[in-house]
TrEMBL record:
Upper lineage: Eukaryota, Metazoa, Ecdysozoa, Arthropoda, Hexapoda
Annotated ranges, domain PH: 129-229, 251-281
Alphabetically ordered keywords of this record: GTPase activation, Metal-binding, Zinc, Zinc-finger
One Pfam family this sequence matches: PH
GO cellular component: cytoplasm; plasma membrane
Domain of life: Eukaryota
Native organism: Operophtera brumata (Winter moth)
Arf-GAP domain location: 6-127
SUPFAM superfamilies: ArfGap/RecO-like zinc finger, PH domain-like
GO MF term list: GTPase activator activity; phosphatidylinositol bisphosphate binding; phosphatidylinositol-3,4,5-trisphosphate binding; zinc ion binding
Name by which UniProt lists this protein: Putative centaurin alpha
InterPro entries: Arf-GAP_dual-PH_domain, ARFGAP/RecO, ArfGAP_dom, ArfGAP_dom_sf, PH-like_dom_sf, PH1_ADAP, PH_domain
């Protein structure tokens, strides 16, 4: 039998904003963080639980017993009020996750909001500085083994460089303004991984990198997006920001193996990897 508090929670779910997950927007959330006062989905609830009860205290709306004070907290806050607090200063370049996005993006969004409170304290948003240096594990071109490489992002030079040896010239220099970056856990077999895609000599090239710390790889991803937005704002000062944001890197529309043949009837079919990116195959 449904008790009084569960009935109150179901009524609260009908209020604007409470009918979707506060973190990823999934419909019909069936969990809540009662100290934060938000309604969340099962996937996000597991991330909240992973942060520890000192940050977020999670309960199922129907399967757990609720105290009067906990329900009162949900009534006082709710998703809209919590968003106004914890998302007050989200940078325009920051990618807000939805329910289909990679785990690392969703987890770091949640941790940035409630654990690090980055969007309440802009000085904690290191990815906005236009520069970033650090080490990432990069896959080799020939042997596919991963080696530690130093990467240097510089917005003022429109460049992302990587070094084999720190004190020598960079092994590669990529133009930020022409770079696409996506998370690539399925390809690399690591949750904290990225694929950098660019064009060189008329051919599409890929660089695969990862880092053991999910926060680090997410910061690199965000730093690239933020630098790209700033470069677009300089190049197109009269264009609305919303239009420029739509030009930032997106996940590929589709990827997979296809059989391809050459122009001659005698050419054999060969298995090739295809990527559909921004109306380009």
């Amino acid at each position: 039998m449904v008790d009084h508090n569960q009935k109150l929670l179901q009524e609260l779910l009908k209020k604007p904003g409470n009918n979707v997950c506060a973190d990823c927007g999934s419909p019909e959330p069936d969990w809540a963080s009662y100290n934060l006062g938000i309604f969340i989905c099962m996937r996000c609830a597991s991330i909240h639980r992973g942060m520890g009860a000192h940050i977020s205290k999670v309960k199922h709306l129907k399967l757990d017993r609720w105290e009067d004070s906990q329900v009162q907290r949900m009534k006082e806050v709710g998703n809209v009020t919590a968003k106004n607090k914890y998302e007050e200063r989200v940078p325009p370049c920051y990618r807000r996750p939805n329910r289909c996005d990679p785990q690392v993006l969703t987890e770091q969004w949640i941790r940035a909001k409630y654990e690090r409170e980055e969007f309440c304290h802009p000085e904690r948003q290191s990815y906005l500085s236009g520069t970033m240096e650090g080490y990432l594990m990069k896959r080799g071109k020939e042997d596919s083994r991963y080696q530690m490489r130093k990467f240097v992002l510089c917005e003022s030079e429109d460049s992302l460089k990587y070094h084999v040896q720190e004190n020598k010239q960079p092994k590669g220099i990529l133009k930020l303004s022409e770079l696409n970056v996506v998370f690539a856990p399925a390809k690399i077999g690591n949750m904290n991984s990225m694929q950098l895609t660019f064009t060189k000599d008329g051919s599409t090239r890929h660089i695969y990198v990862y880092h053991d710390e999910p926060e680090v790889i997410n910061n690199w991803y965000t730093a690239i997006r933020c630098a790209q937005l700033h470069l677009l704002q300089v190049a197109f000062p009269s264009t609305p920001q919303s239009d420029l944001i739509s030009r930032l890197p997106k996940d590929f529309a589709r990827e997979g193996w296809l059989w391809k043949t050459g122009p001659r009837p005698s050419d054999a079919h060969r298995r090739r990897w295809f990527t559909l990116d921004n109306r380009k195959l």
